[in-house]
Each structure stands twice: as structure tokens, then as C-alpha cells.
Specification:
72 residues, alpha+beta, two-stranded antiparallel ribbon, 3 helices, 2 strands, extended
């Protein structure tokens, strides 16, 4: 299935994948075999987009208004 010419194939290199584990980032290649298996089994999802009828409220105009409104 590889359609790249041989000249390009010789220059290819593996992409190192990093993931966040326990608050810091590590390369998946540094995981033990069990953790690599868990990483491969992860399920990813796509969050639904918001329609016009379900819009997010607009943020406050400025930080000064936020301070004034809470300290009255």
C-alpha cells in the first residue's frame, strides 16, 4: 500500500508519541508492555458542536466589571 518512491522511504523516521501520565508527559515508547497495551485500547470521542440554539454565554466585558460586581 505504500505509494511513496524509494528515495522518500529511505528518509522516513518513526513519529514519537507522547502522552500525559500522572501530571507529566512521557513518550509512549518508554512505557512497559502493559501500559502500551492500555494506551492502544483508549477510546477517543469527538465532542458535539453547539448549534445556534445552544450557545455558550458571553464572557464579561472586562475584569474591572467582574471586580466591581462582586465587591459591592
Amino acid at each position: 500500500m505504500n505509494t511513496l518512491p524509494a528515495a522518500y522511504q529511505a528518509r522516513r523516521q518513526r513519529c514519537e508519541v507522547w502522552t500525559r501520565v500522572m501530571g507529566y508527559h512521557r513518550p509512549v515508547s518508554a512505557f512497559n508492555i502493559g501500559k502500551q497495551g492500555e494506551f492502544a485500547e483508549r477510546q477517543y470521542f469527538v465532542a458535539p458542536t453547539l448549534s445556534a440554539s445552544h450557545s455558550v454565554p458571553a464572557p464579561m466585558a472586562s475584569a474591572a466589571q467582574a471586580v466591581d460586581s462582586c465587591c459591592v
